[in-house]
Specification:
Layout: H1 26-38, H2 62-67, E1 70-75, E2 78-84, H3 103-115, E3 117-121, E4 126-131, H4 135-142, E5 154-160, E6 166-176, E7 179-184, H5 189-199, E8 205-208, E9 213-219, H6 223-230, E10 231-232, E11 242-247, E12 250-256, E13 265-271, H7 275-285, E14 291-293, H8 296-305, H9 321-324, H10 341-350, E15 354-361, E16 377-380, E17 383-394, E18 399-407, H11 422-427, E19 430-434, E20 437-444
Parallel strand pairs: 3-14
Antiparallel strand pairs: 1-2, 3-9, 4-7, 4-8, 5-6, 6-7, 9-13, 10-11, 11-12, 12-13, 15-18, 15-20, 16-17, 16-19, 17-18, 19-20
Helix pairs in contact: 3-8
Length: 450
């Protein structure tokens, strides 16, 4: 990094941009560092959370969700409902490397989203407004996808580096000819702002509105019916569309036809002062539709089962659209210059040596066997060809599902990786090693039809 300005590997775990302003507060640091140092040699189970410096960044819905039995986790200083307890006194998050104690609650929340309608508070997501005379040219240069779309459209795009890797991953809603609304993962709050400011040119205004809006993910087959009853204004029923509407008594709401997990529905961005009234109205109006509170565990398992990959968890700055199966979201068929274009053109011609896949485990008993939690090796003919990034239980598939990058090793001693194709992956016999036991896994680069 000192000699070339680049590390050649992902350094996200050491990057100061993974922190926000809250992490610069002295008392926050004193409490959190003391806790971290004390647990340095303690066995940390999956899904453990910090106990210090909590309830720092809470959404407007926090009191309502807490009263409904929410068990909260923390990310980037934000309190987020992980699941909802049926018994407020029970601790369903006890440590272990197998089936979670919260499994029955997550299952109920999962099926609420698949069969009825669920509400997920995703207010911690990063949110920016971008405007100005040069905003389109600016975003076309930063984004791999073509963002010159009709007003009312939502575009999912990456912001790539010169090597074609994902510096950022976001959704852009075009609210006007010179006005975009950007939504990105929670942990990208500092990173994406730094990247945009570094490359900004011309008349472009970048405004951080993360803490100004409460975001409710209204997800499931009955989501449209629920919102149409409450919405005043045109709610575009198509996926990847956006509308500025009133919901209940709340004006100036933004509805995006995106749920971030592959299920039908909308995310409604509500000015904070109206959030509680909208939430209460959604719960009351949706009672006959089977509305339910849903946490991040259910959302995570929904998206994993649909092969919906997340930046920072599944891929990052060293991974390209061709490697994660998003080459259809790249504007190489145009003459528009964007960061990473040359690298992608080379990779398109040369092929890739790793591909992102979905692995459904066979011969795995979810009740008795240990689970994969990330980092487990993926084997092919006694060669380690990858590692699990994230995993979850697919209630529709009734299988433990792992996501991972896999490679194709050469047959000689050079250990040089060979180009890998979808056909090769479909015929290969992979296995995932969990605590020394290998489970056969069926691989696919496409999401299943559920």
């Amino acid at each position: 990094m000192v000699t070339s300005g680049e590390a050649g590997i992902s350094t996200w775990g050491f990057n100061p941009q993974r922190f926000g302003n809250v992490h610069n507060v002295r008392c926050f640091l004193m409490d959190r560092v003391a806790e971290s140092a004390a647990t340095h040699r303690v066995l940390r189970y999956p899904k453990n959370n910090h106990h210090s410096a909590r309830k720092v960044r809470c959404s407007a819905l926090y009191p309502r969700l807490e009263a409904a039995g929410a068990h909260f986790g923390e990310l980037f200083g934000c309190e987020r409902a992980i699941y909802f307890r049926s018994d407020s006194e029970a601790d369903y998050g006890a440590g272990g490397f197998g089936k979670l104690g919260s499994f029955p609650m997550v299952e109920q929340e999962y099926w609420a989203c698949r069969q009825n309608v669920g509400l997920i508070d995703i207010s911690s997501y990063t949110k920016y407004r971008l405007s100005g005379a040069d905003v389109l040219a600016f975003l076309q240069y930063l984004c791999a996808n073509d963002v010159d779309c009709p007003v009312g459209s939502v575009i999912h795009t990456g912001m790539l580096n010169q090597h074609g890797g994902y510096e950022n991953d976001c959704s852009l809603a075009r609210l006007g000819e010179r006005h975009y609304y950007l939504v990105a993962p929670t942990v990208q709050h500092t990173r994406i702002n730094t990247w945009m400011q570094r490359h900004r040119f011309g008349d472009v205004e970048i405004t951080d509105v993360t803490d100004l809006y409460t975001a409710i993910n209204v997800i499931g087959p009955s989501a449209r019916q629920l919102l149409e009853v409450m919405a005043e204004g045109r709610l575009d029923g198509r996926a990847m569309r956006c509308s500025e509407i009133s919901v209940g008594y709340a004006p100036n709401c933004i509805a995006l036809g995106v749920t971030h997990c592959g299920e039908p529905g909308w995310t409604v961005y509500i000015p904070n002062q109206y959030a509680v009234s909208v939430y209460d109205a959604l719960m009351e109006t949706g009672r006959e539709l089977g509305v339910a509170n849903v946490g991040y565990h259910a959302m995570r398992w929904l998206r994993i089962e649909k092969l919906f990959v997340y930046w920072g968890q599944d891929f990052g700055s060293m991974d390209t659209p061709y490697e994660i199966g998003r080459d259809h979201r790249v504007k190489l068929n145009t003459d528009i210059l964007f960061i990473g274009r040359d690298a992608l053109l080379r990779q398109r011609d040369q092929g890739v040596t790793k591909k992102f896949v979905m692995l459904t485990l066979e011969e795995h008993d979810v009740d008795r066997d240990l689970w994969a939690w990330g980092g487990e090796p993926v084997y092919l003919d006694n060669h380690v060809v990858g590692r699990v990034t994230t995993s979850g239980y697919g209630f529709t598939l009734q299988k433990l599902v792992c996501l991972a990058f896999v490679t194709r090793p050469s047959d000689d001693v050079s250990k040089q990786l060979l180009p890998i194709s979808t056909g090769y992956i479909s015929k290969a016999k992979f296995a995932v090693d969990i605590a020394g036991r290998r489970f056969p896994a069926k691989a696919s680069v496409y999401p299943p039809l559920l």
